[in-house]
Amino acid sequence: MAQITLQHVKKSFGKADVLKDINLEIQDGSFTILLGPSGCGKSTLLRILAGLEEESAGHIYMDTKEITYNEPKDRDVAMVFQNYALYPHMTVYQNIEYGLKIKKIPKDERKRMVADVLEMVELTDHAQKRPNKLSGGQRQRVALARAIVKRPGAFFMDEPLSNLDAKLRNHMRQELIELQQQLQTTFLYVTHDQVEAMSMGTHIIILNQGKVMQQGTPKEIYTNPENLFVAQFIGSPAVNIIEQGDYSIGIRPEKMQLITPFDTAAGDYQLEGELLSTEQLGGETIYRVKTAYGKLHVKTPSQWEAVDNKIKLSFKKEDVFFFDNDGERTAPDYTLLKDLREEPQLHFA
Length: 349
Fold this sequence. Notes:
Blueprint: E1 4-13, E2 16-26, E3 31-35, H1 42-50, E4 57-62, E5 65-66, E6 77-80, H2 92-102, H3 107-120, H4 136-148, E7 154-158, H5 166-183, E8 186-191, H6 194-200, E9 203-208, E10 211-216, H7 218-223, H8 228-233, E11 240-244, E12 247-251, E13 257-259, E14 269-280, E15 284-291, E16 294-301, E17 310-315, E18 320-323
Parallel strand pairs: 3-8, 3-9, 6-7, 7-8
Antiparallel strand pairs: 1-2, 1-4, 4-5, 9-10, 11-12, 12-18, 13-17, 14-15, 14-17, 15-16
């Protein structure tokens, strides 16, 4: 296992600053997610940590040892790529064994190590197959096994599930969670998919335009966003935003209450709306509502009953985020919502 520390890491390509003074501590034994939109610098950062890309400035430490200038083979990490990077002419067994042969591990020990890892990823019955005879999920597990057998201090993964279909992605997410818990090793995982980040990570680092926007547990990131970017990037549907002068006020869709003739309890603030659309997702229902403050989303547990076109919404004051003109989180100012204090004058038929 390994703790990874980055101090003032920067990366520029010509005049373009891709990473801007990154300072991070990736905890030993954590499943840490590097999350952000395409082009934010997360894959570049991962490649710098692996030694595949050279930083423009800064220092990198694994535990207490500086590895900034170490070659990739000397960094005690294993990389799993998006495209698997398997040798097509080798069998599953040979793909996994290859790195051990390079290290001159004795044959009997290699055999035992490969057998153990094949069993761990449930590929023992496929050991003599070549990659073109495997499914996408099986090829990904071969790539993972090849990394696991090296027994590295940390695993680096660059969007390893992006080539899989939705059902297989869901399955592989669970397998990776179980694998990390079994190995108790540091995982650093790059993705732009917030579902992967929230469901898999013990810690999340959100990047945008080469800067760290926030880091913390999934709960901290979701319930206490430090800026408008994080609030809007995490959550599906995205956080509702009500603009009030120089301030932006955010309310999560699941914190918006749909007031019906059967449920008339209201929060601290109420507003009227016109129903635009309804999405039935099985376990939940999402409503899109046109209001005087823009189009807002409401997410509730499944409600199969039809809803009137004219509806009422409400929310509680403790569920509101306030952001200043620069998009930074600011202290609550409930006077900005004074126009929503009055009970709407709508009447149900």
